[in-house]
């Protein structure tokens, strides 16, 4: 495995690190204040507009996009540390136009959209002229199993008609949200993974109603997590993304890179929490000396550093495998980092909260918000248990019952010879497409 960064990737890291220190971290308090003073809690604070303009001018823009001529053309391995740096701030990814759900939606449009769809939606998204949302999760069913989706997409002449209810549709409350990418069933009688389709729905289409904005552990997200009712929503047939029955495959393609992005942001969360913890215990005095002199506190710090380094290496390995053998062959590692990343980040944030005492549960620091985010993301984008199921299934496949070589499981040869990974031959049947 070669985790060495190219000169260009190293230079981008230096530039982003400098940008975060000079512009993003100092703007966090301004962002929060402007948001608190706004009439609409979902309104874009002016400081974010300023930050986006500066990031674009610095060439730190759309770095996630690796398809076509739209983005920076970085590999997953090159992009991973950049997303870690951006993830150190809650507002960081949006500054660089690299925030969910837009990143996944833009990748879908770049890979599967028609030229017309790309012109109408992808171009404005890349320019941050509009925002988008992804409507998949439903309140009545366990949406981590895409087979459970009830929202119906019915063909009616030259139109599709949508009926259903979604929730935790992230981003739909943003006033700039103009596009909904919806996952629904076009043919319940088709083979299991050919029932679902994705549809492009303009946000202002009649019949789309936001029932309520859902908080996350009491926090209201600026872009919103809406419960949305679709009642006889009509869109032209050319608004289908990919084709009928391709929704499940498209969802899998969307979520692979997305999970790596989540994981690297989580590394950034953990690094920020560890930094705050170290600063706090160095300055805080109790029982005759700095908290940093206490053995238990030093253990928190040491374990946090060890766990973060382990996690970062696992994520970089996953990114490297995605680049060398493809997303399908790296499937076990991608599932593993989704679990490990949020577990580690949540654990480190929890220690930092403890080290801060009362301040840790207040809004005086970012820790309480990070605590809520890291816990919620263990459910969003597929709960931990679904990803663990994937890892276990892949591991058990090495031990086939009654196999004459069962005592000698096949060694993973991808490290030295990535092209020999045979797991890519297996069809994808994972059902963890239910993103919050």
What's the layout of helices and strands?
Elements: H1 7-37, H2 46-57, H3 76-87, H4 92-95, H5 102-112, H6 115-126, E1 131-135, E2 152-156, E3 159-170, E4 177-185, E5 196-202, E6 208-213, E7 225-236, E8 240-241, H7 247-283, E9 285-286, E10 289-290, H8 295-324, H9 331-356, H10 358-361, H11 367-376, H12 384-396
Helix pairs in contact: 1-2, 1-3, 3-7, 5-6, 5-7, 7-8, 7-9, 8-9, 9-11, 9-12
List keywords for this structure.
10 strands; alpha+beta; 436 residues; globular
Question: How would you portray this structure in words?
Answer:
- The chain is of the alpha+beta class and 436 residues long.
- The chain has helices spanning 7-37, 46-57, 76-87, 92-95, 102-112, 115-126, 247-283, 295-324, 331-356, 358-361, 367-376, 384-396, and strands at residues 131-135, 152-156, 159-170, 177-185, 196-202, 208-213, 225-236, 240-241, 285-286, 289-290.
- The strands form 3 sheets. The chain has a 4-stranded mixed β-sheet with strand order 1-4-5-8.
- Strand 9 (285-286) and strand 10 form a beta hairpin.
- Helix 1 (7-37) runs antiparallel to helix 2.
- The longest helix has 37 residues, at 247-283.
- The two termini are 33 Å apart.
- Mean pLDDT is 90; it is low at 413-436.
């Amino acid at each position: 495995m070669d985790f060495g960064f190219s000169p260009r990737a190293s230079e981008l890291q230096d530039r982003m690190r400098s940008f975060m220190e000079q512009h993003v971290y100092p703007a966090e308090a301004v962002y929060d204040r402007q948001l608190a003073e706004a009439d609409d809690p979902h309104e874009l604070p002016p400081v974010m507009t300023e930050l986006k303009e500066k990031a674009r001018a610095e060439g730190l823009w759309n770095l996630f996009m690796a398809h076509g001529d739209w983005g920076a053309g970085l590999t997953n391995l090159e992009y991973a540390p950049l997303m870690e740096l951006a993830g150190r701030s809650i507002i960081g990814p949006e500054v660089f136009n690299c925030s969910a759900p837009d990143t996944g939606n833009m990748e879908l449009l770049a890979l599967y959209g028609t030229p017309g769809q790309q012109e109408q939606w992808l171009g404005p998204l890349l320019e941050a002229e509009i925002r988008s949302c992804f409507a998949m999760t439903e309140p009545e069913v366990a949406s981590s199993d895409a087979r459970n989706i009830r929202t119906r997409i019915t063909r009616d002449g030259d139109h599709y008609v949508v009926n259903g209810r979604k929730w935790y549709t992230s981003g739909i409350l943003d006033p700039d949200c103009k596009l909904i990418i919806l996952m629904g069933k076009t043919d319940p009688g088709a083979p299991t993974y050919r029932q679902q389709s994705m549809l492009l729905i303009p946000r202002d289409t009649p019949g789309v109603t936001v029932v309520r904005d859902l908080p996350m552990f009491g926090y209201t997200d600026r872009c919103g997590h809406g419960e949305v009712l679709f009642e006889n929503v009509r869109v032209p047939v050319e608004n289908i993304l990919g084709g009928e029955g391709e929704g499940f495959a498209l969802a899998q393609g969307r979520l692979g890179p997305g999970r790596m992005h989540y994981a690297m942001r989580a590394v950034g969360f953990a690094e920020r929490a560890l930094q705050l913890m170290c600063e706090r215990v160095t300055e805080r005095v109790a029982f005759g000396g700095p908290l940093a002199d206490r053995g238990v506190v030093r253990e928190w710090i040491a374990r946090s550093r060890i766990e973060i380094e382990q996690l970062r290496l696992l994520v970089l390995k996953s990114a490297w495998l995605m680049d060398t053998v493809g997303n399908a062959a790296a499937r076990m590692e991608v599932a593993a980092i989704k679990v490990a990343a949020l577990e580690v980040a949540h654990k480190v944030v929890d220690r930092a909260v403890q080290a801060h005492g009362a301040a840790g549960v207040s809004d005086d620091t970012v820790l309480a918000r990070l605590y809520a985010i890291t816990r919620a993301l263990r459910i969003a984008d597929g709960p931990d248990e679904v990803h663990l199921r994937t890892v276990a299934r892949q591991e058990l496949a090495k031990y086939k019952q009654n196999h004459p070589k069962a005592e000698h499981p096949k060694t993973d040869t991808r490290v030295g010879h990535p092209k020999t990974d045979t797991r890519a031959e297996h069809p994808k049947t994972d059902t963890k497409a239910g993103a919050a």
